[in-house]
Amino acid sequence: MIDSLSLENKLKKNEIANCYIFCGSDEQSIKNVIDIIIKKSIKNDFMDLNYTQLDGLTVNSDNLTNACETLPFMDEKKVVVVYRASFLRDKCDREKEKVYKYMEMYIKKLPKECILIMYYIFENDREKESNKIKKLDKYCQVVKFSKLKGAAFQKKVKEIFDKKNLKIGKVELTLFCNCVENNMDIIQNEVEKLYWYTYGREITSKDIYDVITVKNDNDIFNLVDYLSQRKPEKALDILNELIFKGENVNTILRMIERQFNLLFNIKVGLEKGNTKEELARELRLHPFICENMMKQSRKFQFNQIEKSMELCLETEKNLKSTSVDGKTEMELLIINTARS
């Protein structure tokens, strides 16, 4: 098994394997590497004929075989990608186990004209690669996409800015990397926002503070969004992730309280007929963030937000007691809020 940086070095030397299995929590990074392999392996004129995508949730032995066995048209190679290949997880249903057993046997005799790529996404940053793909490491190139850190992370982010022809200094780049979630999907979205916000001029620190969604704010937005959908198990996943990253439970609670307070004020403003621009100015929110929160506020009734704010205050009182477990109190808050 190798990491993504080792794979990129191999691809720069045009060392392309016959079969790949990718895993990690950052799907955008995986997709970027797949694009590189496709462009290096298939002539653009025959892309439609020599590139096949299969859904990992519905793939079976027949369509996998047919896709791989079909000869490339007017080219030396064809590429088959099985995305979200859940059969590569250790725990899956009987049908997916059948697919895995077949694939385990089939990749040993994969046609040399075919490049087969399969990937699955970790459910959180703490998940480890499955035992299944460890077993397959001797038959294909297994690559784990761990999140980049430090200088390697900044270099990758700078490449995204460069592709958009955006000018950003070293200090501003460091600030951006410290503020944004370490996820290429989110980073590309934030760079896109900065592109339109600055449009032709160099990015300043103020631009970054004005435009981007700070990483923990984004987590809290998603946590509250899952509460609006009555999915406490998803909200608990985010809570556990924040705690795992070292965030204090009191800080998390304050952010949740702030989110509900903003949603309440936005909902009041919408009832009065205020526009997005008026709400953004009054609440000191970027228009992009305000628009998303307006959508989120519509998922709640007033009484739900009020009840949620009451539960937050109750939790805050409980946390001040030395006899309670902070994590347990936050879990109860999420479960009770989802039921309110």
Automatic annotation (TrEMBL):
Homology family: Belongs to the DNA polymerase HolA subunit family.
Top-level taxon in the UniProt lineage: Bacteria
Catalytic activity line of the entry: DNA(n) + a 2'-deoxyribonucleoside 5'-triphosphate = DNA(n+1) + diphosphate
Pfam name, any one: DNA_pol3_delta_C
The EC number(s) this enzyme carries: 2.7.7.7
Keyword Amino-acid biosynthesis: no
GO molecular function, one term: DNA-directed DNA polymerase activity
Keyword Nucleotidyltransferase applies: yes
InterPro entries to which the protein is assigned, alphabetical: DNA_pol3_clamp-load_cplx_C, DNA_pol3_delta-like_C, DNA_pol3_delta_N, DNA_polIII_delta, P-loop_NTPase
NCBIfam families with a match to the protein in the record: holA
PANTHER family, per database record: DNA POLYMERASE III SUBUNIT DELTA (PTHR34388)
Keywords, comma-separated and alphabetical: DNA replication, DNA-directed DNA polymerase, Nucleotidyltransferase, Transferase
Residues covered by the DNA polymerase III delta subunit-like C-terminal domain: 218-336
Species name: Clostridium brassicae
Protein name: DNA polymerase III subunit delta
Location of the DNA polymerase III delta N-terminal domain: 20-144
